[in-house]
Amino acid sequence: MHSALAEELKAALERQWARPVDIDGLERLSVGASREMWRFDALSEGGTFPLILRHPPADVTEAEYETALVATRSCERELQQALYEQGVKVPEVIVALGGEDTEVRTGGFIMERLPGEGMPQRILTDSTYSNSRRRLPQDLAEAIATAHGVPASALPPLATLSVDTQIQLFQQLAERSGMEHPGYEWALCWLRENKPPEVPVTLVHGDFRLGNFVADENGLSGIVDWELAHLGDPMEDLAWLCLRSWRFSRPDLPVAGLTSREALFKAYEKVSGATVDPGRVHFWEALGNIKWGAICLMQSNRYHTSEDKSGAIENAAIGRRFDEALYDFFHVIDKVH
């Protein structure tokens, strides 16, 4: 099963390492609504190497998939490797691969498999990670502050997404889907009228949340899924981590079901040397819910335009969460943090 894919992985690694390689335990993971993820072990001289294949879905073309919200496939790979070389906690990229006549489409790459767990519910509830839950707020603050501090000159070219640019994108996504929703339109108006002054831009992960990092018993192993990375306001990442959608079984703890906003801000300030403006984070939390709603629309559109409905059922499920995101937006703007 998956023999053609295993052979391609074997050939790519043998070219990269210049030695014989065997592939073992190739298995597609259930995570990844926009990128396919496969785990496997590479057996070679020197031992067993736990790896991950990350590549775009086979039924989505480059033109259909990429939007201004999403980094191009090659850019995501180059960014992740650049961050690894800058000391940010991310998986090392081993080799790029793929093409139109292969199992792995252009833009796929193999990276190291980080030790630990990525499933949010397990991280938040499993006793194995009780110590990790205490350490994660500090670890996450340190890791994202380090990423924010990487100079743009050390990164591949990335889009700059200002507040105005993002609002325009959210409007276009709604128009493209044919949706007319007074609540959504009102939210976009509120964002335009309440946007904070612009600040110097840094790298922004764009999807910094529970589910996009891996933790083991001792804390953070690394941050993954950089496909929404861009240049922008670093407070966007802190706010996104606070969205109610990412708290899962702990809605009482605003920061990914782990801690309070105040504890996160204090840890971030200590590492970055920057001062966190809670009002600015509050705005980005409001915008983040509309961004999540726009992503739900994108995934719903993918379901409705996909020929293979069975393979796109996760997109349909995500699409149904649009109203939840809009509800959370109104809850956020009605409350001063």
Question: How is this structure best described in words?
Answer:
The chain is of the alpha+beta class. It has helices at 3-17, 62-65, 73-85, 120-125, 130-148, 163-177, 182-194, 235-241, 261-272, 278-305, 313-319, 322-333; strands at residues 21-28, 36-44, 47-55, 93-97, 108-112, 202-204, 213-216, 219-223, 230-232. Strand 1 (21-28) and strand 2 form a beta hairpin.
Which labels suit this protein?
about 325 residues, alpha+beta, Phosphorylase Kinase, domain 1, Aminoglycoside 3'-phosphotransferase, Chain: A, domain 2, five-stranded antiparallel β-sheet, two-stranded antiparallel ribbon, 12 helices, about 45% helix
- Secondary-structure-derived class: alpha+beta
The major pleated sheet works out as: 5 strands, antiparallel
CATH secondary-structure class of the largest domain: Alpha Beta
Low-confidence stretches: 62-66
Assign the CATH topology of the largest domain.
Answer: Aminoglycoside 3'-phosphotransferase, Chain: A, domain 2
Mean pLDDT: 89
Global outline: globular
Major sheet: arrangement of strands: 1-2-3-5-4
Number of helices: 12
- Sketch the topology as an H/E string, one letter per element: HEEEHHEEHHHHEEEEHHHHH
What's the SSE blueprint?
Layout: H1 3-17, E1 21-28, E2 36-44, E3 47-55, H2 62-65, H3 73-85, E4 93-97, E5 108-112, H4 120-125, H5 130-148, H6 163-177, H7 182-194, E6 202-204, E7 213-216, E8 219-223, E9 230-232, H8 235-241, H9 261-272, H10 278-305, H11 313-319, H12 322-333
Antiparallel strand pairs: 1-2, 2-3, 3-5, 4-5, 6-9, 7-8
Helix pairs in contact: 5-9, 6-7, 6-10, 7-10, 8-10, 10-11, 10-12
